[in-house]
Specification:
Monomer. The chain is α/β, with parallel strands linked by helices. The chain has 21 helices and 35 strands.
């Protein structure tokens, strides 16, 4: 997952391949709560790993459920009629699928609880649900503004006698989560009499209620309804674990890759040419309402086929066709249609989306603001949005997309990187996707394709002990880019050759070169990995350095390592450090930095480094060694150490690492078309 302040997406051209989606958020949190309320132990398979499910699991542990988690499988032993542990303070982040149902369930279970979340959660209405619970006789107080969390449930002496004779009335035109919360909680009170819920006003997002009803049935609760306005829970209802249950992949998350298949051309000119996008984990028979996004995408021109657990998407009509659609049945996925509208001919109108206003952010306002940044003409109303794309390629604009701590805004607008103007797109706060799809950008990059020359590279070259490796690694981490420590490549090659039983000499040059071509090297978490082995320390010994020098003297190996280093130029970008990154390996890099420092300064740094590791050293000897090495490196016949002609020289003798990093980042920002709006 990207935890950077922003993530720059270069212009993307094509997409093809297969994506495995995470579990549905809507199903995951419903299943977790139903398991917690049931008698017995429920094994939940393929659970979504996200911020929303994490806060739900934490809350269930606090109220006394036994939770055993192993990867995407969770075993929950429910309360089964026991009272929850209380008092307890539950923090529920920005998870409406946790806040609303837990409030209702705890109000009927008894105990003292405080439920709170992030500031945005305290702006999301819950008053209609509280009004319904108070009708029953539940004691719930607002700890802040009336109608909004945080809340206090105060049933210290047990739940009072509930008023169940008359139907419980709840509004349905603000959020379907209010009705879902009551449907999941009220079976707890259905002893000797049936319980009736009446919906006031039009029920929005009916497909989400359908999910709730299907899952309730899996846990032994049958609910009848009359035209989605009157719901009846049978007397004697009692939760019983189904034993095990599988969570479908998230249909809302599928919308981004359905859209991707509709707007991106398929990859061509490659050995294993793939066609379109295949989505694994959710199919045309999904119980989730957002699967009907398929119908909308088809209406815009996508060619979609599928089976029980998969979808295949191909680009069809181009440009896409503008649509006028009532989106009440796909409220979350409809946001993706607003971005698809950028690639349509004509004006797309999405209506009946008032619920967008009370989601993680005011999504109508957010989508309108960010679409305009890209060059679209947008009209918004209380419950609609109308999008007209830029008239031609020249009218598109490079934009820094503000994401409002809303996962769906971030994922939707990543699709703008396929714009015909070939402009980059900046996604601010990319980590917000952790709410439902922590690895979204990794999944996108696994199928998105672009000419390698268009993937940005920052080269940081310099002499020994100039700090280039430390600075480069920090810059890569700040940008979310890949990192290449070129100096380590020769050491790793030597280590791999010795492990394979090859002597490092001319007789084994061809074999070592072949080995070097496919070395499984990666730089992650401040460590160097060769396959699954952490070789960070193994390649830092004096012997490893001497072996690296011997390897570098073999021309075929040097050639192979050039190709291997080129292979690190992958999405979303690369920061490469070494001695010839800007002059030999990546001569077309848009930013080249030559990092240097005086020999005296570098000797002092190396001295402190050695002393901290318990080695004895002499500053004078280290300085003499560095000066001799500088002379050798700058005069060698192959790739001599020198700044590239267009490199920016940065003397960091008097700079901290952080100051050097900030300078490099500032130079990089100056080269971006959206630098002025990068930070807020």
């Amino acid at each position: 997952m990207y935890s950077t302040a922003f993530l720059d997406l270069p212009p993307l051209q094509a997409a093809a391949g297969e994506v495995h989606l995470p579990g549905s958020k809507s199903i995951s949190n419903r299943v977790l709560l139903l398991a917690a309320l049931s008698n017995g132990t429920t094994t939940v398979h393929d659970l979504l790993a996200s911020d929303d499910t994490r806060v739900m699991l934490d809350a269930l542990r606090q109220i006394g459920c036994t939770v055993d988690k192993a990867g995407s499988t969770v075993r929950i032993t429910g309360l089964g009629g026991r009272l929850p542990q209380s008092p307890a303070k539950l923090f529920l982040g920005n998870a409406g699928t946790a806040m609303r149902p837990l409030t209702a369930a705890l109000a009927l279970l008894g105990g003292e609880f405080e439920l709170s979340g992030v500031p945005r959660m305290h702006e999301r209405p819950i008053g209609d649900l509280i009004d319904a619970l108070r009708q029953l006789g539940c004691q719930i107080d607002y700890l802040g503004n009336d109608g909004y969390p945080p809340l206090k449930i105060a049933h210290g002496q047990g739940v009072p006698a509930l008023a169940l004779a008359a139907p419980i009335r709840v509004r349905g035109d603000v959020s379907s989560q209010f009705l879902t919360a009551l449907l999941m909680a009220l079976p707890l009170a259905a002893g000797t009499q049936a319980i009736v819920i009446e919906v006031v006003g039009e029920l929005i997002s009916k497909p989400y209620i359908a999910i709730t009803l299907q899952l309730l049935a899996r846990f032994g609760i049958v609910v009848e309804h009359q035209n989605w306005q009157r719901f009846t829970i049978a007397a004697g209802s009692r939760y019983q674990s189904p034993g095990s249950i599988h969570v479908e992949a998230d249909a809302s998350s599928a919308s981004y890759f359905i859209a991707l298949g509709a707007i991106a051309t398929s990859a061509t000119g490659q050995k294993d040419t793939k066609s379109g996008i295949k989505i694994q984990g959710v199919g045309l028979d999904s119980i989730q309402g957002d699967i009907r996004f398929v119908e909308a995408a088809r209406a815009m021109g996508a060619v979609i086929t599928g089976g029980p657990n998969w979808l295949q998407i191909e680009r069809g009509a181009w440009p896409l066709k503008a649509i006028d659609l009532d989106c009440n049945h796909i409220p979350d996925a409809a946001m993706t249609l607003a971005v698809m509208a950028l690639y349509a001919e004509g004006t797309t109108t999405l209506t009946n989306i008032a619920s967008w206003r009370v989601k993680e952010t005011d999504r109508i306002a957010a989508m309108a603001t960010e679409l305009r940044k890209l060059g679209a003409t947008v009209e918004e109303g209380a419950d609609y949005i109308r999008v007209t794309p830029p008239a031609q390629s020249a009218d598109w604009k490079a934009a820094s997309i503000h994401t409002y701590d809303d996962h769906r805004v971030a994922m939707c607008f990543s699709l703008a990187a396929f714009n015909p103007a070939r402009l980059p797109v900046r996604i601010e706060d990319p980590k917000c996707v952790a709410k439902t799809f922590p690895d979204y950008f990794e999944a996108l990059f696994s199928v998105a394709q672009v000419e390698t020359s268009h993937i940005p590279v920052i080269c940081i070259d310099g002499p020994t002990a100039s700090g280039k490796g430390t600075v480069a690694a920090a810059v890569a981490q700040r940008l979310g880019y890949r990192f290449l420590d070129s100096g380590a490549m020769y050491r790793i090659t030597a280590l791999a050759a010795l492990r394979a039983g090859f002597a490092i000499d001319a007789d084994h040059e061809a074999r070592i070169a072949t080995l070097a071509q496919t070395l499984p090297v990666r730089f992650e978490g401040g460590k160097v990995w060769l396959g699954s082995d952490d070789v960070t320390e193994a390649i830092r010994t004096e012997e490893a350095g001497m072996n690296a020098s011997r390897v570098s003297a073999l021309p075929a190996v040097r050639t192979a390592l050039v190709d291997l280093q080129h292979s690190f130029q992958r999405l979303p970008g690369l920061v490469a450090d070494g001695r010839d990154m800007g002059t030999v390996i990546f001569p077309e890099a848009p930013l080249k930095v030559y990092l240097t420092a005086s020999a005296a300064c570098r000797a002092e740094r190396r001295y402190k480094q050695l002393i901290s590791k318990g080695f004895s050293a002499s500053i004078e000897d280290l300085r003499a060694d560095l000066e001799a090495r500088d002379a050798r490196d700058s005069s060698r016949s192959v790739a001599p150490l020198k700044p590239a002609q267009d490199a920016l020289v940065l003397d960091n003798s008097d700079l901290t690492i952080e100051q050097a990093v900030e300078k490099v980042l500032a130079w990089w920002q100056e080269r971006q078309p959206f630098a002025a709006s990068a930070q807020r």
